[in-house]
Amino acid sequence: MRGRGHGIPGLVKGMVTTARTGLRRTGTQEYPDVSPELPPRSRGVIALLEENCTSCMLCARECPDWCITIDSHKETIPASTAGGRERQRNVLDRFAIDFSLCMYCGICIEVCPFDALFWSPHFEYAEYDVRDLLHEKERLGEWMASVPPPAALDEKASEPAEVAAARRPQRTVPAQRAVPAQRAVPAEGDSP
Amino acid sequence: MTWLEVVLRAGAVLAAFLVLPLLIGQTEHKVMAHMQGRLGPMYAGGFHGWAQLIADGVKFVQKEDITPLAADRRIFRLAPAVALVPYLVALSVVPLSPGLVAVDVPLSLLLVLAATSVGALGTLMAGWSSGNKYSLLGGLRAAAQLISYELPIVLACASVALAAGTLSVVGIGVAWSPLWLLWQLPGALVFLVAGVAELQRPPFDMPVADAELVMGAWTEYTGLRFALFLLTEYAGIVILSLLFAVLWLGGWHGPWSDSVGWLWTLLKGFAVAVVIIWIRVAWPRLREDQLQRLAWVWLVPIALGQLFLTGIGVVMGW
User: Fold this and answer.
1) Which of B135, B202, B243, B316 is the most exposed place for a label (fewest CB within 10 A)?
2) Residue A72 in domain
3) What predicted TM-score, i.e. pTM, was given to this entire model?
4) Has residue A190 got a pLDDT over 60?
């Protein structure tokens, strides 16, 4: 207690430090009255853009604690032109994230090839019962509104792909090449 | 003194006893919070949480009053009263100005010291009767601490009593002169340090060291009885601060002391209370052996030296 450099000077220093802190403004943000300023990339909640989801199940399989549930069925789309082929596509029936299990690792968002999942900074979704933390696609979709726009690109970055595609001059198809006569109906007996 | 006057004075002391500790408590909430870079209570009552301690009181009243099976029931239930009532008695003889004191008895300094010593018995009773090892250890630590620090307090008070030539708190306050700020300085420091230790407040809160003893002697207490122990602590701060203000800082002495003397006493006492709170925020807790060492190696000799110095001063007629 009374070693060199401690004792009384140390006690006085403690008093000065606390007094100085006491006279300074506190850094407290009074949360329920004042909403916090969160950085745009905060990991608050995971939002779902349902239109982009193809039910590919990548997110559900990569999720380390298996908190994503996906149900889907296949629908057949009739051919758009006569004689065309019918197509099948997945229709999402159920997409649910159990936020009582989710550990906010963000792997599902990283792994989604179709940009259907997004981080939102929204964090006020506490519940009184842990079972109420299982949120369905309707609720996940509501959170899309709170997803911030993507960060601006660097100054000398190349254009985003969709912008570059829109800028490219419209492809003009020459009329005579529209139906290549020689190849359209191969002559009988021709070997490929 | 008529009956009506007795009732009025007793009522006034009781009101002061219930209000002043709450003021100190609220000040502690706020001062401590800001010294730690926080805001403290902000909601209760609307304006900066002024009603926080009232809300706490309401909460304590609603809680279940549990007496442990292993406890010595009667002693356990009596202990908070034994701790609290002596401070009420002590407050009744602490003056705000020569005319503003509930009871003016000739030996009031002795009465205050005796009463506050009895209060320590409440902690010991609580620790002994709880039937809990932490409570027992806390109670014994409290007893050891109170015995050690009683002596420096008494010696420091004896010094001012000697200097004033009276054992009446009012008399000492009247005899006070600014010279005392220098002459009685060692005794004042001893009294302040030993007083904080007597209240078992940080840095002398070894008896309730929460990392070691849960809550010391108060571990088993719940509800209103626990609240009474907390009230005791803050009432103790009130009495210590007012007594220090009157005996060493001159109490009501100051500009316009005839009209606003009581305000001077309250202001000085409040300043002392803020210092006690400040000490709590700034300093770490002493270990048990450091605690005893401080009392016996430093405070008692300094207090004896002060007494010697005062004796010389009185004989020489300073």
Assistant:
1) B316
2) yes
3) 0.76
4) no
